[in-house]
Write a structure and sequence with these properties.
By secondary structure, this protein is mainly alpha-helical. It is built from 8 helices and 4 strands. It has a two-stranded antiparallel sheet with strand order 1-4. The protein has a two-stranded antiparallel sheet with strand order 2-3. The longest helix is centred in the N-terminal third of the chain and has 21 residues. The structure holds heme C (HEC).
């Protein structure tokens, strides 16, 4: 009886041992190496998404231009008649490429056209047009300048740029013009001879 109780006790409560069992050094080393490898891997393989993965746009492409964009204004306001190529529509809408009105040495010619529009016979590249060119007087000086500069340097044109100050001067000088220019009759004098 005594004996079997002693055995029972031994089974339930094993002899206590002194100290705790240390984690084996091998395991610690392996964990350490894994951590080192993880950090090293993160460090060497970190690669911010390259722009080429998407549509090539970078942050700068989304910046809002501080000044008026002549190309955008042209697309929004002129393409319907003068076409994206600036070639116009034969007999109806005159071309802006190689036009004597666009390429005149004085950008004021085109500024006048945009500020007041044209109504009446207008000769462009030897072809006579007789339509209605609407005015864009509601546009700011900056916008007209951007448009004129854009058209004068697009579609094969290589005429000089202009600025808002020049547009303001022309606006002031022609403020008494209450109706559209009468084509050649009003504007012809401004062309290079
Ligand atoms: C509703 C159609 C229409 C729109 C929109 C229009 N134009 Fe015109 N444009 C004409 C017509 C028509 C003429 C010729 C007028 C005539 O026959 O008397 C003309 C003439 C011109 C001329 C002088 C002739 C030439 O071909 O060089 C210029 C420059 C011009 N337009 C620039 C512009 C610009 C820049 C815009 C946009 C801001 C614009 N036009 C928007 C119809 C349009």
């Amino acid at each position: 009886m005594n004996d079997s109780r002693f055995n029972q006790q031994r089974r339930e409560q094993p002899e206590p041992q002194e100290g705790s069992r240390p984690v084996p050094k091998v395991v610690l080393t392996v964990i350490g190496l894994l951590l080192l490898w993880a950090v090293f891997h993160l460090y060497t393989s970190f690669n911010p998404m390259p722009a080429s993965v998407g549509d090539d746009r970078v942050a700068a492409d989304f910046a809002v231009p501080a000044t008026a964009d002549g190309g955008q204004l042209y697309t929004a306001n002129c393409v319907a008649c003068h076409q994206a190529s600036g070639a116009g529509v034969p007999g109806v809408f005159p071309p802006l490429s190689k036009s004597e009105w666009v390429d005149a040495s004085d950008p004021g010619v085109m500024i006048r056209i945009l500020l007041h529009g044209i109504h009446g016979p207008l000769t462009v590249e030897g072809v006579q047009y007789n339509g209605e060119m609407p005015n864009f007087a509601r546009f700011s000086d900056e916008e007209i300048a951007a448009l004129v500069t854009y058209v004068r340097s697009s579609f094969g044109n290589t005429a000089s740029a202009t600025d808002a100050k020049t547009v303001a001067q022309v606006r002031e000088a022609t403020q008494d013009q209450k109706s559209p220019w009468k084509g050649d009759e009003d504007l012809g004098l401004l062309l290079d001879k």
